[in-house]
Design a protein that fits this description.
single chain; alpha/beta; four-stranded antiparallel beta sheet; 18 strands
Length: 483
């Protein structure tokens, strides 16, 4: 696809599937086409897509040869793909709070379901700051904070909730069934088509590809995608072996991640069924993104809209005999991040950015793009990286996971370009792991007790102590913070 033609033609039907929801009446986009909503000198529209449990390699542009994501791939082709994007806490509610606030979990305090974000922090979310800057605010989908009404009050358009249970729903008259992902796209298009001259910030929080509560079909894709990947060969991960599972510490082997592995990945048949449905859920998101992008193009607003696409955390698809997330391993912490900014010069587009980006960077980036003043945040704006500039940048970052639920080990650590260091803080004594990501990218060999790795271990302990002093001790969570 020629970059000059991006969002101006074939993208609407790339890949052969763009699904409309049966729950809403189709719109006559072409009849509503109009000039750009505001002059180019004004702030851009901001469109943030956040999926749930989508790992970084669940994307065609990331090299996945099975999964079809043509619309997201087009964004990567004409935008910037951040190859080393991570979440600082691989837990849905914690990561989403970090996305809204730009803060580490230690600073925003969200570590369990139903918690309220403190009122002072609600005021510092990118949602409220952009609202005060004159933006029209839309929010769709999964909020995963307890104080839903507080966030709803900040929005001009709202179709959100704490966390939906299922993927398939009936229309109010009971005559039609619609898939949640497609219906969120319908709502996003409705928001985009509103006649309002203000710049907008629209957050679309998909539940997909997170597991649903339907016990018979937890990863429930749109029925129209049921045959997608039917004949695909889904190879088992190299680390999905009994030997890799037995090499884990006992408290991980006996964790909830292992229990959830059963009936999802415990047999070749279950593994293939689960991964195909997981991929189908992602494909449904891609189709929804394609429809939303088409609406932007036909409404005349595409060239004034910055699009960001990411996920709250990654996901184990059977690696090491595990399911879900919750650990510092790459499958759980690495997430996709695509940013498409039509104002970027041609030389800055179609790039792959290797510098490390984090979920806490999204809020300051949105505010920077809008020219809005940012409150104090732990993250950094990615705008200089979008422009391919060379500002001082992080060499490592702080990892933390606390979950107020049984069966999930609390841990802290530091991830650098070469090393992953983790401390399981509930164990006595504290259990340490150290992985050399250059020689051991699958994190199979814990080198914490190897004499040859002692210099690296001491260096990572020192970095951990730095973060203990600057993040944990200044935070809201009472957790072990020293060596």
């Amino acid at each position: 696809m020629n970059r000059r033609d991006f969002l101006s033609g074939a993208i609407a039907t790339a890949g052969g599937f763009v699904l409309a929801s049966g729950g809403c009446t189709a719109r006559k986009h072409a009849q509503r086409a109009r000039k750009t909503a505001f002059p180019s000198s004004k702030p851009p529209n901001l469109l943030l897509f956040v999926t749930d449990d989508q790992r970084a390699d669940a994307l065609g542009a990331a090299g996945n040869g099975i999964l079809q994501t043509p619309h997201l791939d087009a964004l990567a082709q004409d935008g910037v793909l951040f190859e080393n994007n991570f979440c600082t806490t691989p837990l849905c509610m914690s990561s989403r709070a970090s996305i809204y606030t730009g803060l580490y979990a230690s600073h925003h305090g969200i570590i369990s379901g139903g918690q309220n974000l403190e009122p002072s922090l609600v005021q510092k979310t990118y949602i409220n700051v952009l609202r005060n800057a004159g933006y029209r605010i839309g929010f769709l989908g999964k909020l995963h904070l307890g104080n839903v009404d507080d966030i709803k009050a900040l929005c001009d358009y709202w179709w959100g909730w704490y966390d939906p249970d299922y993927f398939l729903y009936k229309s109010e008259d009971g005559l039609q069934e619609f898939h949640l992902t497609a219906h969120l796209a319908d709502r996003a298009i409705e928001f985009i088509e509103m006649d309002d001259p203000r710049p907008f910030c629209l957050t679309v929080n998909f539940k997909a590809p997170h597991v649903g509560r339907d016990a018979g079909n937890p990863f429930q894709p749109d029925p129209r995608l049921a045959s997608l990947y039917q004949d695909a060969d889904i190879p088992l991960p190299p680390t999905a072996t009994p030997a890799h599972y037995e090499a884990l510490p006992s408290f991980v082997r006996n964790s909830e991640m292992r229990r959830r592995w059963s009936n999802r990945f415990d047999t070749p048949e279950n593994y293939e069924r689960t991964v195909k449905d997981y991929y189908r859920l992602v494909a449904g998101v891609d189709a929804g993104v394609g429809r939303i992008m088409r609406s932007l193009r036909l409404s005349g607003m595409a060239q004034d809209t910055v699009i960001m696409y990411t996920s709250d955390n990654g996901y184990f698809l059977g690696e090491k005999g595990l399911s879900d997330k919750h650990l510092i391993y790459e499958e759980a912490i690495r997430t996709p991040l695509l940013i498409w900014d039509p104002r970027l010069p041609e030389s800055c587009r179609g790039r792959r950015e290797s510098r490390m980006s984090l979920n806490i960077d999204l809020a300051p980036t949105l505010l920077d793009l809008a020219g809005a003043p940012a409150p104090q945040m732990d993250g950094q704006s990615l705008v200089p990286l979008l422009r391919n500039e060379s500002p001082p940048w992080r060499d490592d970052w702080f990892f933390e996971h606390y979950y107020d639920a049984p069966g999930f080990p609390d841990c802290q650590g530091v991830r650098s370009g070469q090393w992953a260091y983790v401390r399981y803080i509930e164990e006595s004594p504290v259990y340490e792991e150290l992985f050399d990501l250059k020689s051991d990218p699958s994190e199979n060999i814990n080198r914490a007790s190897e004499p040859s790795a002692s210099p690296a271990l001491e260096a990572m302990r020192a970095r951990y102590q730095y973060y203990a002093n600057t993040v944990i001790r200044t935070g809201r969570l009472a957790r072990p913070a020293v060596l």
